[in-house]
């Protein structure tokens, strides 16, 4: 088993991101789809949680669209989160007893649910195996985790900046002044992430192909740029580019209106999260799309756990 003592965990509505250090001290990043679907009781090789079995990943993707759980709101995330932490532990061959901290993210839009989320991650049973991480689960609001990573990778960068974290469902904003998060200027917005691109594409597929596909399936289409149906791949890259451009222009305009002071006065506005790939950085000189932006929260959560361990 791997001797991993801290897991940076970033559960998203489209992908689960995780970061940890290997035996050489290098940061390892990994992501996998948060696709999940209820399985029959006969699927005994699938994880069993609270009396139900679940397909995950590829097994879930090939289920009927109506069987796939639409992971777009907090309650569905809370219900399924033990499955994803279980998958991270098993896939990485982690010894649960060696984990000193699991540092997980959660959107500011749902931060009031933080105590419930911590409780859900702290103790659960899957396949009759009990996992108890009581007092070892820490919560980092979305984008606050990214602050730790930004200042780790760019120690000579500006100390005053804005972080805009675009996820699948939410957008989270963190205002950092002189390296301090200004809590009064932190915001979370539901249903403003790339789910808006996904819904446009979902409607297009319904009209063009007479197929009703789930948002989770559309998320996969956004990544591959193709729609597979009845043995044929359909290239949707042009349509995705069209919807992405509309989203970028609308989102940046809204953000510039909401945060006009920051766009005028700050030297850097960092975009993180999977949605950062859809943003055109040429719109403003202060915008910076960080490399592999989807991992900045999980890396930052790892770094925060390391700081906690040193106390």
List the helices and strands and how they pair.
Layout: E1 6-11, E2 15-21, E3 27-33, E4 36-39, E5 48-49, E6 52-56, H1 58-61, H2 74-91, E7 101-106, H3 114-122, E8 123-126, E9 129-132, E10 137-141, H4 144-153, E11 161-166, E12 171-177, E13 180-181, E14 187-189, H5 195-209, H6 215-224, E15 226-229, E16 232-235, H7 237-258, H8 260-265, E17 269-272, E18 287-289, H9 296-310
Parallel strand pairs: 1-7, 7-10, 11-17, 17-18
Antiparallel strand pairs: 1-2, 2-3, 4-6, 5-6, 8-9, 11-12, 12-13, 12-14, 15-16
Task: Please provide a brief summary of the model.
The chain has helices at residues 58-61, 74-91, 114-122, 144-153, 195-209, 215-224, 237-258, 260-265, 296-310; strands spanning 6-11, 15-21, 27-33, 36-39, 48-49, 52-56, 101-106, 123-126, 129-132, 137-141, 161-166, 171-177, 180-181, 187-189, 226-229, 232-235, 269-272, 287-289. It is of the alpha+beta class and 311 residues long. It has a domain at 6-142 and 296-310: ATPase, nucleotide binding domain (Nucleotidyltransferase, domain 5), CATH 3.30.420.40.
Description:
The protein is of the alpha+beta class. The chain has a domain at 6-142 and 296-310: ATPase, nucleotide binding domain (Nucleotidyltransferase, domain 5, 2-Layer Sandwich). It is built from nine helices and 18 strands. The protein has helices at residues 58-61, 74-91, 114-122, 144-153, 195-209, 215-224, 237-258, 260-265, 296-310, and strands at residues 6-11, 15-21, 27-33, 36-39, 48-49, 52-56, 101-106, 123-126, 129-132, 137-141, 161-166, 171-177, 180-181, 187-189, 226-229, 232-235, 269-272, 287-289. Strands 11, 12, 13, 14, 17 and 18 form a six-stranded mixed sheet that branches. Helix 4 packs across helix 9 (296-310). The model has no long low-confidence stretch (mean pLDDT 90).
């Amino acid at each position: 088993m791997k001797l991993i003592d801290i897991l940076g965990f970033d559960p998203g509505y489209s992908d689960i991101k995780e970061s940890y250090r290997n035996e050489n001290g290098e940061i390892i990043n990994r992501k996998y789809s948060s696709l999940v679907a209820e399985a029959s009781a006969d699927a005994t090789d699938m994880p069993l949680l609270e009396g139900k079995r679940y397909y995950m990943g590829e097994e879930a993707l090939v289920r009927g669209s109506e069987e796939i759980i639409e992971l777009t709101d907090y309650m569905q995330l809370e219900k399924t989160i033990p499955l994803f932490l279980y998958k991270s532990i098993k896939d990485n061959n982690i010894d649960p007893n060696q984990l000193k901290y699991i540092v997980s993210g959660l959107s500011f839009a749902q931060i009031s649910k933080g105590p419930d989320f911590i409780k859900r991650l702290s103790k659960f049973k899957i396949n009759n195996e009990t996992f108890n991480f009581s007092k070892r689960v820490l919560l980092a609001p979305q984008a606050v985790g990214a602050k730790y990573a930004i200042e780790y990778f760019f120690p000579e960068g500006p100390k005053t900046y804005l972080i805009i974290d675009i996820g699948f469902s939410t957008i989270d904003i963190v205002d950092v002044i002189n390296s301090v998060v200004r809590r009064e200027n932190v915001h979370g917005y539901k249903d403003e992430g790339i789910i808006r691109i996904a819904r446009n594409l979902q409607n297009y597929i319904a009209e063009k192909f007479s197929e009703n596909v789930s948002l989770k399936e559309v998320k996969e289409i956004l990544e591959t740029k193709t729609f597979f149906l009845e043995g044929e791949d359909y290239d949707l890259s042009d349509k995705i580019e069209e919807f992405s451009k509309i989203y970028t222009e609308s989102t940046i305009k809204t953000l510039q209106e909401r945060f006009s002071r920051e766009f005028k006065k700050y030297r850097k506005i960092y975009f993180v999260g999977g949605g950062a790939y859809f943003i055109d950085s040429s719109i403003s000189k202060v915008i910076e799309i960080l490399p592999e932006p989807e991992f900045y929260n999980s890396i930052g959560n790892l770094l925060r756990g390391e700081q906690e361990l040193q106390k």
